[in-house]
Automatic annotation (TrEMBL):
<keyword id="KW-0143">Chaperone</keyword>
<keyword id="KW-0732">Signal</keyword>
<dbReference type="Pfam" id="PF09312">
    <property type="entry name" value="SurA_N"/>
</dbReference>
<dbReference type="InterPro" id="IPR027304">
    <property type="entry name" value="Trigger_fact/SurA_dom_sf"/>
</dbReference>
<dbReference type="InterPro" id="IPR000297">
    <property type="entry name" value="PPIase_PpiC"/>
</dbReference>
<dbReference type="GO" id="GO:0003755">
    <property type="term" value="F:peptidyl-prolyl cis-trans isomerase activity"/>
</dbReference>
<dbReference type="InterPro" id="IPR015391">
    <property type="entry name" value="SurA_N"/>
</dbReference>
<dbReference type="InterPro" id="IPR046357">
    <property type="entry name" value="PPIase_dom_sf"/>
</dbReference>
<dbReference type="Pfam" id="PF00639">
    <property type="entry name" value="Rotamase"/>
</dbReference>
<keyword id="KW-0574">Periplasm</keyword>
<feature type="domain" description="PpiC">
    <location>
        <begin position="203"/>
        <end position="300"/>
    </location>
</feature>
<feature type="signal peptide">
    <location>
        <begin position="1"/>
        <end position="34"/>
    </location>
</feature>
<dbReference type="InterPro" id="IPR050280">
    <property type="entry name" value="OMP_Chaperone_SurA"/>
</dbReference>
<keyword id="KW-0413">Isomerase</keyword>
<keyword id="KW-0697">Rotamase</keyword>
<protein>
    <recommendedName>
        <fullName>Parvulin-like PPIase</fullName>
    </recommendedName>
</protein>
Length: 452
């Protein structure tokens, strides 16, 4: 597999809640899941009567999965990560539902680790520690000690996160060995897709986040209510990435629900109709789709094979002038207006430092600013500037007043779209994910699970 294919596969397949069993006979993988079980219709009478007082929805926080124990501590520590991601803003009812979801996730994770082990796939402790250190690097400046302390402070542990890492790596390698080699995308298919993309030049492409919850017909109302509560939590400031990782049953769960860049034609009709009218930052759902419900979040939007002005690299100078402590809002407004007037005397970026020095202002230069990284209201305005022009002053009573001057702009090149290899990798990923979706269902079906 080419390097680009391998890296893309690893990124997309971290938590592919798998589907090898459905192919064991044809792939020769040795997976011991029988495929001969007859598929019959489950009949539930309308006037169903429950015998006894047992509530199947009430589960204690411990379980034994094929002999491996999941403890209440395991659930509590994994749950603590979700609570921390939402700044603790979770009510009691939601917490109960989260606990059940975490238990289900841990059961799935245990099944994945067991299946990889049965296939003689091992993940060393050194590899787990390396991935853990990478997470620490991204969030705590390469300080694993700070990461350990944070996890302990929020009620979790390094062991809990490392177990999740082990599960993801084990599952990824199992899919790499037993699924990927049997996926084939022909050159003709790739070329046909490339031609189709060229024909669609200028049409919209959407970068979407998704949270997918499956639902059998008799549980649709309950799943819908659960999805509605997730949407409410997200609108109250919950982390979409955190919720996607813990709740979503789609294979994109491992990457926080990120679908990547897609076109409307690639989406189910129910989702394309909704995504068409969404704006970046908008959350919509739950949306009923075949097999369950989807929650969509539009991360960004762009035009196919068209240069996006927001990808321009800007050279900017920021001129800052502090306010005296205790200044009133009215006085701050006057000073900001006077500051802006004085800065108009600067003849381009070459003259800014001299003028700013005379005003007692500080100048910061950055010639590698991506327009899309700027706040929305600043982004659109700065893209309208010519070199040497400035934005209106902005700031606060505490931070003082600031002015941005555009010194230069490197416009993006026309986007030629994915290469042949990149598109082939994407199509392979899609097929891997589709086959992967039935694997975990088979593992669940055959598992011996005892709730304590």
């Amino acid at each position: 597999m080419q390097a680009v294919n391998r890296s893309r596969f690893i990124r997309r397949a971290l938590l592919c809640v798998g589907s090898l069993a459905a192919m064991s006979a044809t792939l020769g993988t040795g997976v011991a899941h029988a495929q001969s079980a007859q598929q019959g219709e489950i009949v539930i009478p309308d006037d169903v009567k429950i015998f006894g007082n047992d509530n199947p929805n009430v589960r204690r926080a411990t379980a034994v999965v094929n002999g491996d124990v999941i403890t209440g501590t395991d659930v509590d520590q994994r749950l603590a990560l979700i609570v921390a991601a939402n700044q603790g803003k979770i009510d009691e009812e939601e917490m109960k539902r989260l606990r059940l979801q975490v238990l289900r996730n841990l059961i799935d994770e245990t099944l994945q680790i067991q299946e990889a082990k049965a296939a003689d796939i091992e993940v060393s402790q050194a590899e787990v520690d390396q991935s853990y250190a990478r997470v620490a690097s991204q969030n705590f400046g390469q300080n694993t000690g700070a990461m350990d302390a944070y996890l302990k402070r929020v009620g979790s542990s390094a062991d809990s996160l490392k177990r999740q890492i082990r599960g993801e790596l084990s599952w990824q390698r199992l899919l790499q060995r037993n699924v990927q080699p049997f996926i084939n995308v022909s050159d003709d298919e790739v070329n046909e897709m490339l031609e189709r993309m060229k024909a669609m030049k200028g049409t919209a492409e959407y970068r979407l986040g998704e949270i997918y919850l499956s639902a059998v017909p008799e549980a649709r109302q309950q799943v819908y209510e659960n999805a509605t509560k997730i949407v409410q939590q997200l609108r109250q400031g919950g982390s979409f990435v955190a919720y996607a990782r813990q709740y979503s049953e789609a294979t994109t769960a491992a990457v926080g629900g990120d679908l990547g860049w897609v076109r409307l034609a690639q989406l189910p009709n129910e989702l394309s109709a909704v995504a068409r009218d969404m704006e970046p930052g908008q959350l919509v759902g739950p949306i009923e789709v075949p097999g369950g419900f989807d929650i969509l979040y539009l991360i960004d939007k762009r035009q196919v094979l068209t240069a996006d002005p927001r990808d321009a690299v800007l050279a900017l100078k920021q001129i800052s002038l502090p306010f005296p402590k205790g200044i009133s809002e009215a006085e701050a407004g006057k000073r900001a207006e006077a500051f802006a007037t004085a800065m108009k005397a600067a003849k381009g970026c070459g003259d800014v430092d001299k003028v700013a020095s005379g005003l007692g202002a500080q100048v910061v230069t950055n010639d590698q600013v991506k327009a899309r990284d700027l706040p929305g209201q600043v982004q659109s305005a700065v893209l309208q500037l010519s070199p040497g022009e400035t934005l209106p002053p902005f700031g606060s009573l505490d931070e003082g007043v600031r002015i941005l001057m555009l010194c230069g702009r490197d416009d993006p090149q026309v986007n030629d779209g994915p290469s042949f290899e990149q598109l082939q990798a994407q199509l392979e990923d899609d097929r891997i994910n589709k086959r992967a979706q039935t694997y975990l269902r088979d593992l669940r079906r055959d598992a011996v699970i005892e709730y304590n």
